[in-house]
Amino acid sequence: MDVIIENLPLYWEGFLRTLFLSVVSGVIALAVGTLLAAARVSPIAALRGFSMAYVEVVRNTPLTIAFFFSAIVLPRLGVTFQQFEVAAIIALSAYTAAFVAEAVRSGVNSVPLGQAEAARSIGMKFSQVLSLIVLPQAVRSVVPPLINIMIALVKNSSVAGAFFVLELFGYGRQLANANGDQVLMVLIGVAFFYLLITVPLGIVASTVERKVAIAR
Amino acid sequence: MKAFMTRRKSLLVAASAALALSLSACGGGTATTNPTVAEKPTFAAGSTMEKLSSAGAIKIGTKFDQPLFGQKGLDGKPVGFDVEIGKLIAAKLGIAADKIEWVETVSANREPFIEQSRVDIVVATYTINDKRKQVVSFAGPYYEAGQALMVNKDNTSITKPEDVKGKKVCSVTGSTPAATIVEKYGAELVPAATYSACLEPLRNKQVEAITTDNVILAGFVNKEPDAFKLASDETFTKEPYGIGLKKDDTVFRNWINDQLEAFASDGSYKKAWEGTAGSVIKTAPELPELNRY
Amino acid sequence: MTSVLYDVPGPKARRISLLGSVVGIVLIAGLLGFAIYTLAQQGIFEGQRWAVFGLPDVWALIGNGIVATLSAAAVAAVIAFPLGLLLCLLRISEVAWIRVPTRVVLEFLRGMPVVLMMFFVLLVFATNPFVAVVTGLVLYNSAVFAEIIRAGIQSLPKGQREAGLTVGLTSFQSRLIIELPQAIRRMMPSLVAQLVVLLKDTSLGYIVSYEELLRKVQLMADVLGFQFLFPVFFVAAAIYIAINFSVSRLAIGIERRGSKKAAGGVAKAEPAIVEASAK
């Protein structure tokens, strides 16, 4: 227990870094993912194709490789960052966006066909049908899977520790090495801080889920 | 078709050459030795030596990604100075090199692996310190490394560790050098999975230096002398590498210490160095004064 | 090419769409071309760097890595799926003292990073890396499988369960015989997606020094020398995408065949907005 208390400032720093990476990447991934989902159902064939290809490729690539591209290949292309967090955020949000796109797409699917038909028959355009009728209804069933994706994102941010960003898990490994006699305690501390983010998210997800179930 | 074949062949030749070159250059040392195995050594009944010797097998923990000390080659066998030391000790127990089971130990699992008998000894660039001594015992040190800094060839602003204050320095996540450069010298740590992963940000000038034990850095400089250099030949910490074993197995510890002294006097210590890390640092080290406690 | 979301495009819209497509493709191709050109300028595509792939040793290592990746994933999936079913049944049990603790456990397992669980197993039980990787993957993925199947059961019309109970099945029998099979079929896409995640997560085994494909490749690049880092990684990325892609395709193929046999089942859900436009 002592090792956790003694090193609380380090844990805290790691926790904040993890939180920062997750929140920023999460917001970007939500925006990009929703755009990708919209592109997937859009009238322009190239957009549909691009969205589909992007989602397929990214979902089938391990996150480590996504990090490799953003942190090591991108600088070779002349895109260098002074802050390594930028590379981590690019990798995390590019990766997560593909999952968001899939979740939004299946959410769109959960909206009854009649809704879109009705909107179309009163003369709405594609953008109106999507933004005013379909997406708002999709949100309800999309929120739980989206929260699950965000939980995964928080945990995935631990991969950044291998790519130049010191976050919670990285601090954990540092502490584990420095305190060879108390490795277990160190890791329990790390687990605690992850659960501090992920468990509340999980509880929100199931609450929303229950609300949706009742509304149905 | 023929032209194609020859082209292919020449490429292959080039590749093999590159491979051979890189292998020798990285100094993982293809020159592995097979120390003479002691024949039927006798030990006091009930001692760890006796147990290992009569079993005819030993499990040695080492690193698989530490150039010059313990690195797994393309053929799947680890090579390096640590590996040679392990082989020498096994030989004294009457265990041939091919009866050694090499277990990869990463930094954090060395103590648990010793405590839970997953390995019999650990020879893995394992710095002796007091915290670790509370859970395991150390024979040795068999080598004393020291932390150093590597910078780009054209860098003149960093010559001593005090110069990195507030600057970005790359090292391996959770390693001792990483902790030192932050805590003692106030650098901003940029963590990576392996030391070789640090090379790319250094090249792109996203970090100003890489820090770890001097021998490893010397290996990189040796490979690309036009790109990198050591900031200084001086080291700023002492990292005595010990051989980890079960806590309070004093008999075994003393026995290993005796063997280390024997290796130093019969020249096998020097030979082990020359075949591995010696490809980078020419002067073979003396065996440091043993820490018999 | 009909969609409920927009009109069948007329000649003008088609022209605009075509133009947009062409511009888009040119733009993407241009970016890719620039990337390849820049990398080529730095000599990354020089023959010498790629020629390592002519060495049998290199392919043997890559082969070993693929086998290690697939075997860890296969063993983990085979254990995690039944375990997930069990957890799901416990989670939706009508008995509170079964349901509530299960929920706590699931919440915990879902919230823990897989790397951390692997690390734990390795350190606490001093297992070999394979067991640590598989256990980490099983713990996390069985929880996710359980949640997915539960969502599937909840999305079934209430009548399914009511009918089951009416014909005299016990609550448990209804779950097992009526609801589970439908839920699994309905959630097949999510289950397959999770399977791919599981496969990819084997790469987190680096933390316990399990030598799957990615770690093999990293160690190889270290031994070979820096100049081979890029080629080796590009090949690894391509292999991963190929494997995961075939797994998804295979699973979707199996699912299609399955759902054809069960034509008319509830699993064939209401017509969907996206599917209508995608075809």
Which features characterize this protein?
heterotrimer; B: 293 residues; alpha/beta; D-Maltodextrin-Binding Protein, domain 2; 2 domains; 5-stranded mixed β-sheet; 3-stranded parallel β-sheet; 13 strands; C: 279 residues; MetI-like fold; flat; disordered C terminus
- CATH fourth-tier homologous superfamily of chain A: MetI-like
Number of domains of chain C: 2
- C-alpha-based Rg of chain C, rounded: 24 Å
- Per the CATH scheme, the topology name of chain A is MetI-like fold
Q: What value does the average pLDDT of chain A take?
A: 88
Notes on the structure:
The complex is a heterotrimer of chains A (216), B (293) and C (279). Chain A is mainly alpha-helical and 216 residues long. Chain A has a single domain, classed as MetI-like (MetI-like fold, Orthogonal Bundle), CATH 1.10.3720.10. Chain A has nine helices and no strands. In chain A, helix 7 packs antiparallel against helix 9. Chain A starts with a helix and ends with a helix. Chain B starts with a helix and ends in an 18-residue tail after the last helix. In chain B, the strands form four sheets. Chain B has a five-stranded mixed beta sheet with strand order 10-9-11-8-12, sandwiched between helices. A three-stranded parallel beta sheet of chain B has the order 5-1-6. Chain B is α/β, with parallel strands linked by helices. Chain B is elongated and about 60 Å long. Chain B has ten helices and 13 strands. The N terminus of chain B is likely disordered. Helices cover 77% and strands 0% of the residues of chain C. In chain C, helix 9 packs antiparallel against helix 11. The radius of gyration of chain C is 24 Å and the shape is flat. Chain C folds into two domains: 32 residues; 226 residues, MetI-like fold. Chain C contains twelve helices and no strands. With 279 residues, chain C is mainly alpha-helical. Classes of the chains: A mainly alpha (216), B alpha/beta (293), C mainly alpha (279).
